[in-house]
Amino acid sequence: MKLHEINVQKFRCIENMRLSFENALGQVQPVTVLVGPNGCGKTSVLFAIVQALRGIMGYRTDDVPEPAELDIFRSGNGEGFTRTRPRVSVTLHVEFDSSELQAIPQVFEDTMYLHNEPRPSAIGNGRVTVDWKYPPSLRSDGTPLPTWYVDRLMPRHALPWFKGRLYAIRGWRDQKLSRLSLLDEIGGPMLFPQDRNLKTRVTGASIAQGEAEESRAEENVYGRSREKTVWEILKYLGQLAADGGGIIGGMETWEGRIKEQFNRICAPKEYLGFLYHPNDPQGSPYFKDGASTYSLSVASSGEQVILEYITRMTYPSPMNHSLVLIDEPEVHLHPGWVRQLYHALPSIGQDNQFILTTHSSEMRELAVQDGVHIDLGDLQR
Asked: Which CATH number fits domain 1-74+86-188+325-381: 3.40.50.2300, 3.30.420.40, 3.40.50.300, 3.20.170.30?
């Protein structure tokens, strides 16, 4: 799934903004960098994308709060009263690519036991317009629809196409897909927030003390209701690799994919995998830097951030053909790793679209060289 264009009105600090993610030929750019100082609307654009897609795609994240009255833009110029209540409006122009147009109908057939819905009706070239508004519209009885409810889809029968990844993940977990590769052929959204409470998300307080516990909470589409820490995910993938499982394609394991991508970005540092040491019976994700080895619990914040990006784009399923949103990745990274991450992004997964925000002059310069920057404000301001 690709995002061609977004139009945002009266959301957070944005009064009216239209952005295109296409190149001069009308094709979606693999990477787009939104540049500007604090308060210019960079993060608001990412949040607007998530709010418009979270309901129809089943994307669950605590990093974007449920919409509230304070999210409605309020002008400070003393404008007069009106009879129309201010309302947030977000319009997305998205496209399902050829692999998704072929895979999603097959997923519906394989997962009939879940939903009993017919195959999705054709949507021509795969283009769909999504309109989300807040406050939501009212039902006939005067009660409001859920805040995640999509106000309008064009074409109107396009809704099932947005459920393809939801059903693919469930079908994969239940071992019902006719081809495991179906999961790799359907994309979805993924947000990496700037303020991500890094230590808790990566190691978790109890995990760092060697008190790992299995979550028994009910699973949702993209993971568990208590999101697994990166530590827990790496332990699970390490066990899969040790058992000879976790095949993505060919003989590549999920843990092997993480090692390769981490080492490309963070060289000369290396990720060695989840290992056990005689003095560490609980085990740990381990790294190597020259002659020294060390655990994830003492790794730098930059190493933890990169590992989180790669790990969460691998589990619970590899993210391909997806829309990946990263808010200010430079916060925990020195300039060298900013450059290496930027250049590595197109090779993480297959055919993903990355939208980044930054107030780093280093990353802006990289984006300017490739013609993929959108200036939302003056960095010197």
From this structure: 3.40.50.300
